[in-house]
Batch of 2 targets.
Target 1
Amino acid sequence: MTSPSSLATDVDVAARLSGSDGLLAGTTGAAAAIEVRSLRVRYRRAKADALSDIDLQVNEGETVALIGTNGAGKSTLLRCLVRLIEPAGGRIAISGTEVTGASRTALRAIRCDVGFVFQRYHLIPRLTTFHNVVQGAMGRHGSRCCWPSTSPGDVRHEAMQCLERVGLAAFADRRVDTLSGGQQQRVAIARMLMQRPRVILADEPVASLDPASANGVLELMSSIAAERGVTVIMALHQIELALHYADRVIGLRNGTLEFDQPAADCDAAQLNPIFAEST
Amino acid sequence: MTEPAIRTAPRPTTALPPRVRRPSLLTLVIVLVVGGLLVHGWTQGVAVRPDSLLTGVFRLGEFVDDAVPPDVSRVGPILAALLVTVEMALLGTLLGVVLSLPLAVLAARNTTPHWSLYAVSRAVITVSRTIPDLIWGLIFVIAVGLGPEAGVLAITVDVMGFCGRFFAESIEDIDPGRVEGLRAIGAPRFGVLAGGVIPACLPSFVTTSMFALESSARSSVVLGLVGAGGIGIELATSMTLLRYDEALTIILAILGVVVVFERVSAAIRRRVLGV
């Protein structure tokens, strides 16, 4: 098996893995947005792997729900896809670009294409809503977009359009920490839209929200995904939401893939064992 | 008829934690050392004795008698020297705060680019902090000569040590999620710092800087006593010549300036913290 270090070290020079040369043996990969093979993660001082032998392919435009108990490995898997957590082994490719082994510069370029929505929003609390959204362009335009005053005019216009898209244009000048949880998550989605992502990773985006706000946020993400044809992987705890908003449901248990089926083919009873007490 | 309420909780099967824990060996050692120093100081004349206190109060009365009313005949030169003191404090604090920002970024575990830079910057902060401002004043008087330049440099180094340490600790305390959020966007390292870390730490930075400014206002007076410019030298001269009435004018002027500094800094802190 090839070690991650022997993979291409820079995306600038790495071959973009074309369809038939996908990482996963036996997959055509023609429309693969995300490919994961033999992925393994172990946290420092942990006795067991947080993720072991994960093989996964998500096709372009697909919406996938990751379900599982706390500690099952959902957040670890999502973070690992853009190397916010370093994998201990295995290979990852996003839109055909090798993630494992990518240099720091190359990794930044990969992250530009991948929008990440976090459970706790991860916004900068003292800044305005508009300021937070403008920062979403930092991947494309660099550090000058860390302040609205130094950002190019087109970035400022785009930021306002993104706020209009999530229905928060009226709150552009408000400090983001004065908004409700649902509104903050919408701001985080607007910031993510500034990246113009091809893939969206959402780590329990509605876990901190009331049911109405949760539905609103998922509805928004779903419509954005449909408009832009982006691939979505979202970690969710609620089976009914997973079945409603995803095309495919993947169950994780104790760091391994336990379940992978189209949402249309499964029901809540089938998914319940995923939430059985972990070992 | 209703069931009687349970008046006593059932006895737990697990042993309760003790009401008072036994002090650790380290705690005992610290208590013994501090206690020993206090007893030694009291018995060896470090303590304030009642007879000297009584004499002191009497002499203080003589000082007050000589000092009141304050002599304002030299108010012009005194205000000019005071202006130099204020400018020393402002300039020294500004330079110190500006220099301590990059130093703190290097000295914070979560933002330093390399462990060697972390070690060097922590060492610089420690040296700046542990040597008192008066000693820095003496050193810079030797280096650049008598005058406010030495005072500004002494305050700069002192503020660098103070702010560098607290800025670094504030950066280390930042919610890692904020940094992770910007890293996930693909933001460059400087963008994460300028767009995420600095704004998140700004209230703490401003509060620390304001405390540094208050401290600098007081330091700039004392630094004059060692020849580092400002009002301190005027005060030392008046005291040496037993011109207590003139000294009182200077002391009142210093008091006024320090109070203004504290009020302004408190107002800025309130505004930034939103309290």
Target 2
Amino acid sequence: MTVGWIVAAAQVVLVAAVAPLLVGFTRAVRARLEGRAGGRIAQPWRDLRKQLRKEPLIPADAGVFFTAAPAVLMATSVLVVAAAPYLSTRGPLSGSVDLIVVVGLLLLGAVALALAGLDTGTAFGGMGASREVTIAALVEPTLLLSVFALSTRVGSTNLGAIVAAGTSNQAQVFTPASALAAAALAIATLAEAGRLPVDNPATHLELTMVHEAMVLEYSGRDLALVEWASAMRLTILLGLLANLFVPWGVSTSLYPGAVALAAGVFVAKLGVLSGLLAVGEVFAAKLRLFRVPELLAGSFVLGLLAVITSAVLA
Amino acid sequence: MNQTAAALSGAFALAGVGAVAGLLTPARWRSAAVGAATTGVGVTGAVAGIAAVSGTVWQVRLADLLPLAGVSLAVDALAGWFLLLVGGVATVVGVYTVGYAGRVGHGPSARGALALLPLFVAAMLLVPAAGSVSTFLLAWELMAVTSLLLVLAEHRHSPAVRTAGLWYAAMTQAGFVVVLLGLAWLAAAAGGESFAAIRAGTAELSPLVSSGVFLLCLAGFASKAGAVPLHPWLPRAHAEAPSHVSALMSAAMVKLGVYGIVRVAFDLLGGGPRWWWLLLGALGAVSALYGILQAAVATDLKRLLAFSTSENIGLILLGLAAAGLLAGTGQLAVAGVALAAALLHAANHAGFKTLLFCGAGSVLRATGTRDLDQLGGLSRRMPATTALVAVGALGAAALPPGNGFVSEWLLLQALLHQASAGGTVLTIAAPVAVAVVALTAGVGVATYVKALGTGFLARPRSTTAAAAVESPPTMLAGMGLAAAVCAGLAVVPAVAAPALGRIATSLRVESAPLQGSGVDLRLAGIASSISPLWIAVGVVGLTVGFAAVARAVGRARRRAAAWDCGDGPLTARMEYTATSFVEPLQRVFDNVLAPEQDVDVTHPAESAYLVRAVAYRRRLPDRVEARLYRPVITAADAVGRAARRLATGSVHRYLAYMLTALVAVLVAGVLR
Amino acid sequence: MTGTVNTQLLNLACGLFLLTAVGVLWRRELSALIGLFTVQGLALTGIAVLLAADTGSGEAAAVAAGVGILKAGLLPWLLRRVLHRVPEARETASLVNVSASLLAAAALTLLAYAAARPLVALAPSPTARAAPVGIAVLLIGFFLAATRRRAISQIIGVLLIDNGIAAVAFLATGGVPLVVELGVSADLLLAVLVLQVLTTRLQAAFGDTDLDELRELHD
């Protein structure tokens, strides 16, 4: 039991440490591909350190929803990391938090930020919040249909059970159904994490901002928490994508050696996925906000096809 | 006389006392007296419910109370669940009423309006307690009439109240007639009017009769439950009724429609063919989606909550449909989970909707408006109300660790884990239903972010909102009670497991669908589990921890002007309003909502290139109402106008009608 | 069908076959539509080849080769020629918007799955189990042809219908006689050639290939 909690804590520390590096890595890869020099991979960590030292300002009319949102965002992210099977499928929370709860907790974090955006009383905050919840609402069906496709072959929505079933039965992993579900979940991930083509993480233009508009008023340690938690959310989603569809390397026990190996494999998988993300972002243009529903409808169809395919071929 | 009997009798006695107190006490003490009595009715009703769901059933037949049929009561576990639900809501509303009705002596604290309140609660307690068709119909009609009078409490206040009353009266009476026909047919066909006799007699019913009874009862009960397309009374009556009455109606009365469906379809008829459940499921899916879309675009806070009631009823019906369909294919364990999901969601919805309607009442009382576009800035002026409403909104948005999440999780589990052996229909219906639930949940989140974010946060958008003050302690206490119940249901839903198991057994599905200790929630036949307690502790504990660490490590916060693009200062007119907040969502669902908008640009006389003023209007009429009800109303009007020629005002003519009718009856008798 | 590798490959080809049909609804650029149609032709060829390898008959191999040449080579080439002659690059004003089309595709796929259940029950082999894919593509093709305005999109819709029929024929019966396939292909080729001429004439007459304009001819 204690070992389990140590592994869960190790997951949290690992993801918290890696998340800013992952963001730095995607930026660096993008910059290199676009022919720019770009920042270093550790630059996001330096930014965090700088922001933690600065004085946080809050808008004159903001209330407790604004000041609490960074902590809520961070809390939901940490809880998801602690429960997800990144290193081992036998974590202490694997029976307490399932895939649907993960979806719900991530949504709770987004809602906290949206309320914070509205609490600032600026047009930017409201605009970002409005767009964020619109996208979040439309992503939800895709997410849950992917959950459907993943959980029917296992008979459980618990993350540990799904990943463990994948590691023990390799033939189940590469089926048309799981390929479709992976594609659907990948699109949903882009939308949830606010990446191109749904949202441009590098923009500060009113017409296109979503996430940045919501957090425009944050500064100092509040901004640091928001940025850190957002990086963790990206890592969480990419990590889930990696471990649900390519479950190799995840330890099904709590032996330190196996867990350490799993940590290495996990970081490698994250590196590959974030590299792919960066390459994709070089070639993708941001969609107009009102074209995003088309993309999400497409991902919804992929999710539905995944479910139907698994039923047809069952 | 057992515990159930004692408590229930106590409830009815207290209701009588409360009604008399409402009539006799002076205006100063009236709301306190009636509030206390209503709370008493609620507490005793809830106690009766708890006793019944714990296994203490009660049956009695009072032959002398009514001529011909007598009154027959039968309280089993299913009835107990709904007694508990009604009682719980009434307890909260009773406390809340003391402050809300106030001491003014008119409007909600008028003599009649207050005297009726405990009677309405008593009628709602009588509906699930009824043990025969005649008693059930009597209770149903009592409930309809008392609630109608309560809706009309503020009829002098605005014409909208009178319109709402008319719609409600028409629809509730039409619903009653349909239920009357259905149950009377059932009683005649089964050879007895007590529920026990019907249960014994349904085995010999022909499929035609049972399907006919099902359809009639479904129509009547679904209209009471506010399922789309039988919902148009709901946004009107819930919005225009005094808020404590809205809370009672939306949280408790509407659920009795659900009770009716469960009682008739599952218990009395004992299940039915597949198409029943597909029809019920389609009704649920349409209600959920249409309800939440209308709620998302509503700017009237109480209308929003009313449409959200339609949505939640839709989810409950979806759960019931899944239970019926799964039980039909022999998957009793998963069917039990679906049934438990529906019943638990009914309780959860009662909890958070009571809280939210009371919160809306507090806002209305403090600011005089329900229009979200006029509100804002209440989080600083009414911090306690805002915090309580936030708890309710968390539950209503079905986010963890709210209470709505647990029941939606159960519903999703039942839909995800039906076996593929269940047949083609189930294989197709399940993913569609999951998608419906997911989209409903997503749009629900947007709806409640809007309600909380634009209604309570940032700067006030009107002078009345700026002048708001916190509600009196009794109102806060009532809402606090509801919030505590919501929190309890969210954290330890497993306490309901034995009760749900008993109901499931009595309805012939799995005996213990929910299992688990106080910490974990496990299911029968499905390997998934969650721990609501751990999730709640994790979210709250980590949030507090991070906030504390950040405060300890970082520098203190300083207030400064928000970024105004250098063109400040920011005014309330620059904030996003509720309307603008949902504009993207509304645009995505343009084809469903069919908004009517027009833009008038007026130019000055000098040049057509300059603009003097731009007027923008957007209306979102209820499309179902316009398409389905307007033609019926127009036709009824036409019939009425045509019939007017028969009534000219001449006494001779009327006497001639009577003579003709009498002669016709006699001739018919002779010829027979 | 023997061998799990073959089954997996067949499933993959069927998945690709259906995905390209959904993709045709998703994309607006006409050139992308032709690209997707080419990929779909390849997937259909893949299905035919796998079945031919399974039965080992020379006739099936010939059919597969014919399908490959026609669906992945000749027809896309003809379509590209048409596209070069007309200036429109995108499907601008379809009668149903993209999101709704995608949802309709989802519904049609569900319908296809339900409708194919008895067909699958007749001969429950892995090939027959994939037959709903063909029906789904057929329905999506009809939907495309019914809701799009540009002549090229409509041609592609008709071609999707044919692909769907061919896939059902392959999957449900395990192969089509060579003669039937030849006849159908000849018909199809003729239809595309006629449409090509028509599109060019339409373009010359109206400066547009919106087929709704043809309604004006009857006045």
